[in-house]
Amino acid sequence: MTDTTHAWGRPPSGRFNAVAAKFRPVFAEIRAGAAKRDHQRELPFDAVAALRQAGFSKLRLPVENGGLGLTLPELFGLVIELGEADPNLANIFRAHHGFVEDLLNTGAEHRGWRDAWLERVGKGETIGSGFSETGNNTLGSHSTQIIREGDIWRLEGKKFYTTGSLYSDWIHIAAIDGDGTVVGALVPTKAAGVEIVDDWDGFGQALTASGTARFTQVVLQPDFIKPNALRFNYAAGYFQLIHLATLAGIGRAAADDLAALVASRTRVYGRGNGQQSAQDPQVLQVVGRVRAAAYAAGAIALKAAEALQEAYEANLSGNEARIALAIRDSDLDVSQAVTPVTSLILDATTGLFDALGASATKRSQSLDRHWRNARTISSHNPRIYHDRLIGDFAVNGAVPDGIGGVGTLTSTPATKTEDA
C-alpha cells in the first residue's frame, strides 16, 4: 500500500525530515491518544513531558544553548505535524516558542538578561501565557499590577487565557506599575501566591488549560522582569501563524481519519456508485477535497513562515529600511493567509461527514473534535479584521499596525503587545 502519511508536499528544508524524525514517534504516540483525551477531558501532562524530553521546547534555541537552531519555516513545519497529532499541544507550546523568539531578538544592550533566560530554556524550562484579561481593562493596558518595593517586585491581579501555564515552569505576563507603565515579567508557576485554575470551558481546544491565573502578593526577583515590555517586532504575524499551522495540522488529521474510515467502511447507500465506499467516485471526491484543503493550508502556512524568517534575518542585519519592509511584508503575508486557511479547514472538517454515514457522528468516533478545535482556534483573532487590513493596504497603502490583544477602547492603546 502506498505510504500517504507524510505525502504533504516538499518539506521546508533539505534537513527537515531528518530533524522531524526525532519527533515523529512522539507525535504518533500523542495522536494515538488524542481522541480519548478529548472525549474524557484528560489533560495531556504526559504528552507535554514527552515533548519536552524530546527537545520540542528548544527548536529555535541556538545549538550552543542546547537547542536545534531551526529556521522559522522548520519550526512551523513541526507545529503543523504536532497540530496533526493533537492541536491542544501545538497551542500549549505557543507562548513558549514566542518567548524564545523574544530572546532571539533581544539586543546586545540586554545580553546578560537574554543569556540567562536562554540558559534556563536550554535546561528544559518552559513558559506559558499570561497576557489577556477579562473585564473592562483598556486595550493595551492591564488591571494586573506589578509594583516595585526596594529590591523586589510584587505582583497582584488576575489573568485569563493563560494557555500552557498549567504545564509550564513560568508564566510570561504583562502588568502595569505604579505609574501606569506596562511591564513584562516572568512569574514562577510554583511561587507562593500563584494559583492556576483549569476553568477554560470552550467546546474546542479544551485541554490547553486556557483558564484563570490569580496572583496574590507574588514576590518577583529583579531578573524576572523583562528589560522591555514590547514583543519582537513581527510578533503579530508570528503568533497568528502558530494558529494557522495548527489549523493545517487539524486538516491533515481530519483527512487521514476520513481516508481510514472510508477504506474500512463496508456499508453503502442504495444510491451509491460502488460495492464499497472505497470504490465510490463521489465518496472519493469528498476524501480528495478534504486532503487537498489540508495540503493547501500547509503550503500557505509554510510560505508565510518564509516571510517571518526574512523579518528575523532583517533584524539581525540592523538595516532599518530592510527591517521596516520585512515587518510590513510578514504581517501582510500572514493576514492574507488567515481567511484562506481558515475557510479551507472549517469547510473540510464539516464536509468530511458527506463521505460517511450517521455512525460517524457517534461521540466515540470523536470526528467532531476536528471542527470544534478548528472553530475555536479561528475565533481567537477574527479573520474579518485581517481581510480589512489587506483591503486597506491594497486600496490605500495602509500598513498594519501590529497591535494585538483584547480590551475596551477608550483611548489610543498604550503599547503594541500580543495576547500570547
Automatic annotation (TrEMBL):
Belongs to the HpaH/HsaA monooxygenase family. Residues 243-380 form the Acyl-CoA dehydrogenase C-terminal domain. Residues 28-125 form the Acyl-CoA dehydrogenase/oxidase N-terminal domain. The lineage of its organism: Bacteria, Pseudomonadati, Pseudomonadota, Alphaproteobacteria, Hyphomicrobiales. GO terms for biological process: fatty acid beta-oxidation using acyl-CoA dehydrogenase. InterPro entries: Acyl-CoA_dehydrogenase, Acyl-CoA_DH_C, Acyl-CoA_Oxase/DH_mid-dom_sf, AcylCo_DH-like_C, AcylCoA_DH/ox_N, AcylCoA_DH/ox_N_sf, AcylCoA_DH/oxidase_NM_dom_sf. One of its GO terms (molecular function) is acyl-CoA dehydrogenase activity. It comes from the Bacteria. Keywords: Monooxygenase, Oxidoreductase. It holds the Pfam family Acyl-CoA_dh_N. This is Monooxygenase. GO terms for cellular component: cytoplasm.
